[in-house]
Design a protein that fits this description.
Blueprint (H helix, E strand, L loop, with lengths): L2 H14 L2 H7 L5 H8 L5 H11 L4 H16 L3 H19 L7 H25 L5 H17 L13 H14 L5 H11 L10 H17 L3 H13 L6 H16 L7 H6 L1 H16 L2 H10 L1 H7 L2 H6 L1 H15 L5 E3 H10 L6 H13 L5 E4 L4 E4 L14
Antiparallel strand pairs: 1-3, 2-3
Helix pairs in contact: 1-2, 1-4, 2-7, 4-5, 5-6, 6-7, 6-8, 7-8, 7-9, 8-9, 9-11, 11-12, 12-13, 15-16, 15-19, 19-20
Length: about 400
């Protein structure tokens, strides 16, 4: 595509306020940029001159920096490309308040590409032996975009506040990459204090992204009661063809549900082979009360669970496997409400877990504390006295 033709298309989109059209022409990894760069490139000063002739301000600068960023990507210089993309966004944000909300799609594209370039630029800086600093700088720029959206004072039907949650998604993805989850709290506080429409009024894609991130943040804070509905909503409303997104949600949703004995179906795991390898043995162990199998599966998948940050949560669900086994002891003894500690010790030994009676007492005490069992332990008599009513209550009510 000739530069003049490209700029003509961009200018037409700007004049007609065609949001998706302009955004697509300003996307670095797009067919338009690829076609443009396949042509013989003009000298930089010539590109700048032609942009000035063909486009109104501030689009002259925005598009020029976009083209320079594309050329940086083409040449494999991601540090230079990042710098140009950052200049494009800075120019865009200076004029953002004077624009109408048709330009939100462009804002999303500029910020999303900035994040991608920052990741690549940091890799290059590390390879050179320099400090990787672009992703941190990127987070500050995206934060400015967030502020510009959430503080917009235009009437609601024309407000740029409608872009708030989309920008939050890009910002949170950046914070997660930086392992700076704590910074998300500041954004959530700002959202709570702002005069925003209810989340349900935003596009479903924005809702899903927001519920996913709030679910994961609650998961990391061990607030599983809050995490589960957010993650479940995100999973239920993510179309099946977004396979990788659904798999990512399940990495946090499955451990959350394991804590109250809700096991993933075979059909679900078959859809995600990686998850099947990781969770099928754990689910089988919980269902059958085979504590030894659970421990072996936890060791086998440990490195993967640690990398996801879900290991400790999955480890907590061991208590559900122990509960299943102990309930089998209760059932096999005609549901008597007085059971000796040694009977539970024998059951554990049967599934390959050899512990002394003191350890068994400790396990029973934890079961009672976590609400998995109702009763008390007579330490002197080494007996568990179970409640006459519902000694093994439903696990849903005991979710942490």
């Amino acid at each position: 595509m000739k530069l003049t033709m490209y700029l003509g298309q961009v200018n037409h989109g700007i004049l007609k306020e065609h949001d998706h059209k302009v955004a697509s022409f300003l996307q670095i990894y797009s067919k338009h940029s690829e076609k443009l760069l396949n042509e013989t490139p003009e000298p930089v000063y010539e590109i700048e001159r032609i942009c000035g002739e063909r486009l109104p301000p501030p689009w002259t600068e925005i598009v020029f920096h976009h083209i320079m960023a594309c050329m940086g990507v083409r040449d494999g210089d991601y540090v230079a490309a990042y710098s140009e993309q950052s200049n494009a966004i800075s120019t865009f944000l200076r004029e953002f308040q004077a624009m109408t909300n048709w330009c939100l799609e462009t804002l999303y594209i500029l910020n999303g590409d900035l994040r991608r370039l920052a990741v690549q630029a940091d890799k290059q800086l590390e390879a050179r032996g320099d400090k990787p600093s672009k992703l941190e700088d990127c987070a500050r720029t995206i934060n400015k975009s967030f502020t510009a959206c959430i503080t917009d004072r235009a009437p609601l039907d024309a407000s740029k506040k409608w872009g708030t949650y989309n920008i939050i998604g890009i910002l949170f993805r950046t914070y997660f990459k930086l392992k700076s989850h704590n910074l998300c709290k500041n954004i959530l506080r700002a959202v709570k204090a702002a005069d925003l429409p209810d989340l349900e009024q935003f596009p479903m894609a924005h809702q899903v992204t927001m519920r996913y991130y709030t679910g994961v943040l609650s998961f990391f804070n061990e607030d599983f009661k809050k995490a589960e509905p957010d993650l479940q909503f995100a999973f239920d409303h993510t179309p099946p063809h977004f396979h990788n997104n659904r798999r990512l949600i399940l990495h946090y949703l499955i451990p959350t549900r394991l804590l109250h004995g809700s096991l993933p179906s075979v059909r679900l795991l078959q859809e995600f082979p990686e998850l099947s390898t990781l969770y099928q043995p754990l689910a089988t162990a919980i269902k059958t009360g085979n504590v030894q199998m659970f421990d072996e599966a936890l060791v086998s998948g440990g490195s993967r669970l640690i990398s996801l940050g879900t290991y400790l949560t999955v480890e907590q669900s061991r208590g559900v496997a122990v509960r299943t086994l102990f309930k089998k002891v209760f059932t096999s003894m005609d549901r008597t409400n007085r059971l000796s500690v040694s009977q539970f010790q024998t059951a554990l030994a049967f599934v390959g877990v050899k512990v002394d009676e003191d350890e068994v007492e400790c396990m029973l005490a934890n079961m009672i504390y976590n609400g998995y069992i109702r009763g008390y332990i007579s330490h002197e008599k080494r007996v568990l006295v179970l409640s006459q009513k519902d000694p093994f209550p439903g696990l849903e009510s005991q979710q942490q």
